Amino acid sequence: MAVLVVADHDNLTLKDNTSKTVTAARALSPDVDVLVAGQSVAGVAAQAAKIAGVRKVLTAESEALGKQIAEALSACVAPLMAGYDALLVPATSVGKNFAPRVAAMLDVAPISEIVAVAAADTFVRPIYAGNAMETVRSSDAKKVITVRATAFKAADEGGAARIEAVDPGPGAPHTRFVSDEIVKSDRPELAGAKIVVSGGRAMGSAEEFHAVIEPLADKLGAAVGASRAAVDAGYAPNDYQIGQTGKVVAPQLYIAIGISGAIQHLAGMKDSKVIVAINKDADAPIFQVADYGLVADYKSAVPDLMAALTAAGI
Amino acid sequence: MKILVPVKRAIDSNVKARVKSDQTGVDLANVKMSMNPFCEIAVEEAIRLKEKGLAEEIVAVSIGPIQAQETIRTALAMGADRGILIQTDADPEPLEVAKLLKAVALAEAPRLILMGKQAIDGDNNAVGQMLSALLGWPQATFAYKLELAPDTVRVTREVDGGLQTLELDLPAVVTADLRLNEPRYASLPNIMKAKKKTIDIKTVDDYGGAGTGHLAVLKVAEPAKRVAGVRLENATELVAKLKTEAGVL
Questions:
Q1: Are B102 and B4 in contact (CB under 8 A)?
Q2: Nearest chain B alpha carbon to A181
Q3: Quick one: average pLDDT of B170-179?
Q4: Which three-class secondary structure state does DSSP give residue A303?
Q5: Is CATH 3.30.390.10 what the domain over A2-165 is classified as, yes or no?
Q6: E strand map for chain B
C-alpha cells in the first residue's frame, strides 16, 4: 500500500505539520509520497524532499492551488488517489476544508483529526470536544484522513526524495479569491511553537491583552494564544483562539493567564508537556490540569514573572 | 431566493459528555438535547438574510429520530418557514448524511445551503464539504461574514492565519463558524406561531435510501486525564521549577 500526504505550506515555507503527518503516514506504510500543491512551490518541494522516509515529492501548481481553494485542491488530489490506498492531510483550516471533498469524490467515509494509528484500518480520534476518544475502523479500500499533527512527532530530516510535477487539475471555476487578511507577526506560529502564552477574559480589554500577554510572550520567544471568551469579547483576533473549535496546540510549555479552563479550551491545550496556570480564582478548573499553579491576580503576577525571568537570565 | 438549512439534534453544549462504562459510546440517556450550536448560527444567518429581503423562504431539514422534530421546531420558532424531517433511528455517517442532503437539495432547488461547520458530537467537520463536492456547487467553510447578492455570495472565512474572502457563484454551500452572528432566542409569540408551520416527515427511502456504513466504532473511551500539579507561592519559585524540575526554559 502507498500513502499520499498533502503538505502544509504557504507557498514559501513548509510547515512542521507536514513532517508530523508523514510520521502518521509511515505508521500505515513505508511508501509515503508528499504532494505540494500551490504556486511557485519549488522551494517548498525541496524542503519536503528532505523529510526522511519520503519516497517521492509531487508538485502541482496553479493560481487556485496557490490560494489553497478547496475545490481546486480536491480536483487535483482525487485523480492522484488511483495510485494510493490512503490520503493523510494535516487537520489545518486548509486540510479540513478540502479532505472531506476528496472522500466524497471517492465515495469513502472521511476520518477526521486522528491522534493515533491503532492499525492500518483503525484510528483514534477525539469526539464530543475531546471528552471522549473514539476508536474507529474503516472498511473503505481507500482511506481519507485528517491528522491532528500535534499528536505525532516530526519525522527526521535527511531524505533526498525525487521531485516530480503532476497535473494541477481544473482549478475552481465557480470560486474566486477576493482577499486575505493574514496577521503578520514575528512571533512563532501557534501550531508549532515550543512555548505558548495565552490570555483569557480576565484581561478585560484588547489594550490590556496586548500590554500583559505580548511582552511576556516576546520575552520567552513564545506564540500568543487566547481563550474563546477573550476572542469573542474582541480582546484578541480569531486566529489566536485555542480550543476544540479553534487551534489545538501541544507545546513544551503552555502558560494560561486569566483563563478559567472551560472544557472547550482544555481540549485545545491539554496535551501540552507542561502547563502553568495563573488565575486569582483558586477554584478555576484550569488548575486541575496545570502542573504549576499560581493563585494570583495576573496584574501583579505577570510583572513578577517578567522580573523573575530577567533575574534568572532569560 | 430559497435557503436550505440543515440542522442537527445533538447533545446540549452545556452538558458534559460522559462515556458509557461498557465503552460503546457516549451516554445520551436522559441527557438534554438541543440544536447543534453551529446549526443555530446558520439558521440565524438565513433569517437575517430573509429580514434584509434577500431570501424568500427558509427550509430547515433534519435527519434523525422523531424527536428531531423539536430541533426543526426551534428553527421554525426562530423564523424558518417550513421543515423536513428525514426520520431514522440509525445514526447515519457524514457521507450518508451528505448524500441524503444532496437528494433534498435537488428536490428543493435552493440557491444557498447554509449549515453549521461541524456538529459538537462527532466533531467531523465534513458534511458541508462533502455536500458541496457531491452537488458540484462551490463551497465556503468557516464563514465569519457573508454578503449575499442575486447570483453570488461573498464569504469571509476564518482560516489559520487570519481571514480569507472568497466569492462564489450560486448555488453554493456555506458553513458557519462561531463568530458569524449571535443567534436569537425565539419569542413566545413566535414559538406559538411555529406550531402552525409545516414539518414534512419523510423516510430515507424518499431520498434515495441510506447506504451501508463504512465505519465501525470499536471503542469509545475516556481521554487520558492529567493530574493536577502543585500550587506555588510566587513567580520566582515558578521560574525555578520551570528551569530545573520541568526543564522547559
A1: no
A2: B163
A3: 96
A4: helix
A5: no
A6: 2-6, 9-11, 33-35, 57-64, 82-87, 112-116, 139-148, 152-159, 162-169, 172-176, 199-203, 215-221, 230-232
Q: What is the pLDDT of residue A196?
A: 97
| Residue ranges of domains in chain A | 2-165, 190-311
Of B18, B178, B246, which has the smallest distance from its Cβ to A245's Cβ?
Answer: B178
B213 has a chain A CB within 8 A of its CB: yes
**Residue type at A270 in one-letter notation:** K
Instruction: Determine if residue B53 is left, alpha or beta; phi over 0 gives left, psi from -120 to 50 gives alpha, anything else beta.
Output: left
Q: What does DSSP say about strands A253-257 and A274-279: parallel, antiparallel, or unpaired?
A: parallel
What's the CATH number where B60 sits?
Answer: 3.40.50.620
Closest C-alpha among B115, B63, B118, B62 to residue B91: B63
Closest CB to A97: pick one of B17, B118, B129.
B129
Q: ipTM higher than 0.85? A: yes
Q: How far apart are CA A162 and CA A54, in angstroms?
A: 9
Task: Order across the sheet with A292-295: list the strands.
Answer: A223-226, A195-199, A253-257, A274-279, A292-295, B230-232
Q: Which of A25, A313, A9 is nearest to A155 (CA)?
A: A25
**DSSP SS3 for A160:** coil
Quote the domain boundaries for residue B210.
2-245
Peptide bond into B171 cis (omega under 30): yes
Q: What residues 86-125 of chain B have any CB closer than 8 A to a CB of chain A?
A: 93-95, 98, 118, 120-125
- Return the pLDDT at A246: 81
**Residues of chain A with confidence (pLDDT) below 70:** none
- Looking at the predicted structure, is the pLDDT value of residue B175 above 80? yes
**Domain A190-311 = CATH 3.90.79.10:** no
| Cα–Cα distance list, B105 to A200, B4, B127 (Å) | 41, 8, 13
The alpha carbon of residue B210 and the mean position of all alpha carbons in its chain are separated, in whole angstroms, by 20
How many distinct structural domains can be found in chain B? 1
Q: Do residue B232 and residue A175 have CB atoms under 8 angstroms apart?
A: no
Q: Do domains A2-165 and A190-311 have the same CATH topology?
A: yes
DSSP A228-263: HHHHHTTSS-GGGBBSTTSB----SEEEEES----H
Q: What is the pLDDT of residues A262-280, one digit of tens each?
A: 988 998 999 899 999 999 9
List CB contacts (< 8 A) between A192 and chain B: none
CB distance A70–B141 less than 8 Å?
A: yes
Nearest alpha carbon to residue B190 among B94, B115, B88, B81 = B81
Summarised one tens digit per residue, pLDDT across range B41-69 is 999 999 999 999 999 999 999 999 999 99
